[in-house]
Amino acid sequence: MSAQIRKLVVQVDETHREMGRDIHPPTRRALAIAVIANPYAGRYAENLDELIAIGEELGGLLGNRCVQALGLSPGAAHSYGKAAIVGEAGELEHAAAILHPKLGAPLRAAVEKGAALVPSAKKLGGLGTAIDVPLGHKDAAFVRSHFDAIEARVADAPRANEIVVAVAVTDSGRPLPRVGGLQAHEIEGRDGLR
Predict the structure, then answer these.
(1) Pairing relationship of beta strands 162-170 and 120-124 according to DSSP bridges
(2) How far apart are CA 134 and CA 136, in angstroms?
(3) What is the pLDDT averaged over residues 90-95?
(4) Which carries the bigger pLDDT value, residue 4 or residue 190?
(5) Could you give the CA distance from residue 66 to residue 61 in angstroms, rounded to a whole number?
């Protein structure tokens, strides 16, 4: 099975100054979005295997696009996240089928390792609906400096029979983090938490 992709969007967000302070190097977050046809639009289906397979395909495609956009080696990625918006002829479970069973493994391969759970969000919406893609450190969920989000939005999507699928990858945590907790240099990366 392969996704019927209408549009791919890739963007990089860089923060160079925060609260009057220079950020060196700038914090960077990449977002890769696929607008795809929903094969189950307008009908109920007990089995959502086609969307599960599409999720696996998109995890690698979008994860690799993010890493390339940042110009990183895969192991240099810090955080990741995923999200989906289902058009009105679909249902929330269609987003869950794409995001949860199989998207994570190829995304983890794209960023090397990825011991931590991939944060996710999903919703229903129409043209231009925005969603915040939650971010967390790829190897340790307790790294507070990497709790963040980036907004994903495509002006002409999702159409009623489409799904917007977004993956985000960063090269660092938030600018000027100072709320304590486990530091990135202290990560053990064995259990996905620490």
Answers:
(1) unpaired
(2) 7
(3) 98
(4) 4
(5) 9
- Burial category of 43 from C-beta neighbours within 10 Å (exposed 0-12, middle 13-18, buried 19 and up): exposed
Half-sphere exposure of 81 (CA within 13 A, CB side): 29
96 and 113 Cβ atoms separated by less than 8 Å: no
Q: Which two tokens stand for residue 76?
A: 């240099």
Structure tokens at 109: 């391969």
Report the pLDDT value the prediction gives residue 187, as an integer from 0 to 100.
87
93 vs 190, more confident: 93
Give phi and psi for 118, each to the nearest 5.
-85, 115
- Determine the pLDDT at residue 194: 86
Q: 92-99 and 49-70 helices cross at what angle (nearest 10)? A: 60
Q: Which residues pair with 93 in a beta bridge?
A: none
Cα distances from 64 to residues 69, 73, 184, in angstroms, run: 8, 10, 22
Extract the tokens encoding 169: 């990858």
Question: What pLDDT is attached to residue 157?
Answer: 98
The 10s digit of each residue's pLDDT in 97-123 is 999 999 999 999 999 989 999 999 999
pLDDT for the residue 191: 84
What are the DSSP E strand ranges found in the chain?
5-18, 21-37, 79-86, 120-124, 130-137, 148-153, 162-170
